[in-house]
Amino acid sequence: MTRPGTEAQPLRVAIVGAGPTGFYATDQLFRQPGLVVDVDMYDRVPTPYGLVRAGVAPDHQKIKSVTAAFDKVAAHPRFRFFGAVELGRHLSVDDLRAHYHMIIYTTGAQTDRRMGIAGEDLQRSHAATEFVAWYNGHPDYRDLTFDLSQERAAVVGVGNVAADVARILSRTPEELAATDIADYALEALSASRIREVHVLGRRGPAQAAFTNPEVRELGELTGADVTARPEEVEPDELTRQVLERAPDRATQKKVEILKDFSRRTPTGKPKRLVMRFLVSPVELLDDGRGGVAGMRLVRNRLYATATGTLQPKATDEFEHLPVGLVFRSVGYRGVPLPGVPFNDDWGVILNEKGRVLDAQSKLPLVGQYTAGWIKRGPTGVIGTNKPDAAETVTGMLEDLARDIHLRPADASPAAVERLVRERQPQYLSYQDWLRLDEIETRRGKETGRPRVKFTRVKDMLAALGRA
Amino acid sequence: MNIASLLAKKGSKVITVQPEQTIRQALGLLADHNIGALVVVDRDSRPVGILSERDIVRSAARDEDVFVKTVSALMTKDVILGVPQDDLESVGRTMTDRHIRHLPVVDQRRLVGIISIGDVVKAQRDLYRGEVETLQIELTEEHGKPAGR
């Protein structure tokens, strides 16, 4: 038999996870000169785009326009999408091995890291990711509830997600109404009684992960005055040394923006956004009824590790912060996929440069690959997944050139479709998605919003006339 | 971004050698695994040094008997160790400033990986590429020219 990748015998690739990485990998496969590839992309939710739809904040529509590039990829005649099809539920790894030459897992980092402190599981203490998925209308999270009758909230962490959560909590109903935030979230947030949002970073501004545009945005909210404490944003001696030795404009700018916040006086806006640094929660306090009443914070100071990284060390100074609602955003982890080796140390699929490794031998498993956050952990921005996917695709092409790939029993596209139809008759195709997209956008136009999202699978099916 | 994300896609396989092994054995390991340095560990798998191809070349240039020497005689003892939570940025700076090509990474004194300056440079490059890619998407949108649709 000839090597797959020809008109007569196309290379059949399954991609599990329809987020940005899956599309970047698909695009790179389609761009290989002389290679004929069929790509079938699966996702456990009915709609494509992963975190661009369910993660990127609704008031950041610009970045969502990346989906136009994904739609171009999806328009390729050799591309198919199977939405609402879950690995481990509708299909197994063995099913995929029986129908494809190669499989790429691009399922992202689906869960959050815990803080590991007492009181973490009290009511009104939430993973920021759940709140994000909720306000973005993710079908699995739409029915969660958040007690927005509280007046004070804390967001633990100073990364991009923490900034998103703090901003969404601080936006005015009018600002939110102009976005594609889920309807129920718009309603709940419009009735929110939150007056104060505290954002807590364990290190200083110079070490914070959020980007300068994101920080600046926090200072430009129409409904919230931003503040910071001068003593917490002023770089300490170690930070000053680093900035002098290796001047970095972006970091200097970030410190400047936060110093500016610390000099501002409240202008009477309805809400207050408090940026805190060099503090870590050590305990969430119980209100006596199983809910959060506040948190005990410890002040940190920085020390340098052997490689010069500045890390926080707890002092013996504590403070009490009364808050009734807590969102933790201290990092993310991948979730193991049934039948796929997992690296528990780092919360990723066990892999070497994208080649999935056997758990025992640590040697590559034939035909199985991974890319994106489930490969390297949650780092970088959407675009970072492009070079990451390229590394994986390069490995796939090297293996293909050496004739290393799966030998599927039946590689025909029709066989896959039969199987999926049998296991999940309600799957959605890309055509289905384009119709939903059109309806969502039209509903948005009628109300002056970018789109009004479907958030229940049954509503999507009904709109497609399939309920 | 911390260096755990570099180790995450390296399968956590670290090739080690013990101090009493010979340079001949060490060279075999370097050649077999196509790598540039070995982490020297004691019996409890704790890193006690690093042996690079440069250490061997430097010795071989003036000593015919280099092959039978022990690893402990040639290794660099005051080795800098990283931890998974170290920032990519500061690790890159330290490795460049101190001319370190390989950095063993430990977690609670347990060896969990090794990263090379090449890994660091590639990760930094990918981060910058990703940022450029993302900024381009936003700028394209700003000028009212979204592709497609």
What structural keywords apply?
A: 467 residues; Rossmann fold; FAD/NAD(P)-binding domain; 2 domains; six-stranded parallel β-sheet; 20 strands; B: 149 residues; alpha+beta; CBS-domain; two-stranded antiparallel sheet; 6 helices; elongated; disordered C terminus
Look up the CATH topology of chain B: CBS-domain
Helix vs. strand class of chain A: alpha/beta
Relevant CATH superfamily of chain B: CBS-domain
Name the helicity range of chain A: 25-40%
The overall strand count of chain B is: 5
**Largest sheet strand order of chain B:** 1-2-3
**In the CATH hierarchy, what is the class of chain B?**
Alpha Beta
**Tally of helical runs of chain B:** 6
Pick out the low-confidence regions of chain B: 145-149
Distance between the termini of chain A: 44 Å
What does this structure look like?
The complex is a heterodimer of chains A (467) and B (149). By secondary structure, chain A is of the alpha/beta class. Chain A folds into two domains: 195 residues, Rossmann fold, CATH 3.40.50; 218 residues, FAD/NAD(P)-binding domain (3-Layer(bba) Sandwich), CATH 3.50.50. Chain A contains 18 helices and 20 strands. In chain A, strand 18 and strand 19 form a beta hairpin. Chain A starts with 10 loop residues before the first strand and ends with a helix. Chain B is α+β, with helices and mostly antiparallel strands. Chain B has one domain: CBS-domain. Chain B has a three-stranded mixed sheet. A two-stranded antiparallel sheet of chain B has the order 4-5. In chain B, helix 5 crosses helix 6.
Write the layout of secondary structure elements.
The complex is a heterodimer of chains A (467) and B (149).
Chain A: E1 11-16, H1 20-30, E2 37-43, H2 51-54, H3 61-64, H4 67-74, E3 79-83, H5 93-97, E4 102-105, E5 111-112, E6 125-127, H6 128-135, E7 152-156, H7 160-170, H8 173-177, H9 183-190, E8 196-200, H10 212-218, E9 224-228, H11 230-233, H12 237-245, H13 249-263, E10 271-276, E11 279-286, E12 292-304, E13 310-321, E14 325-328, E15 332-333, E16 342-343, E17 348-349, E18 351-352, E19 355-357, E20 364-370, H14 373-376, H15 385-401, H16 413-423, H17 430-447, H18 457-463
Parallel strand pairs in A: 1-2, 1-4, 2-3, 4-20, 6-14, 7-8, 7-14, 8-10, 9-10
Antiparallel strand pairs in A: 5-15, 11-12, 12-13, 16-17, 18-19, 19-20
Chain B: H1 4-7, E1 16-17, H2 23-33, E2 37-41, E3 47-52, H3 53-60, H4 71-74, H5 88-97, E4 102-107, E5 110-116, H6 117-142
Parallel strand pairs in B: 1-2
Antiparallel strand pairs in B: 2-3, 4-5
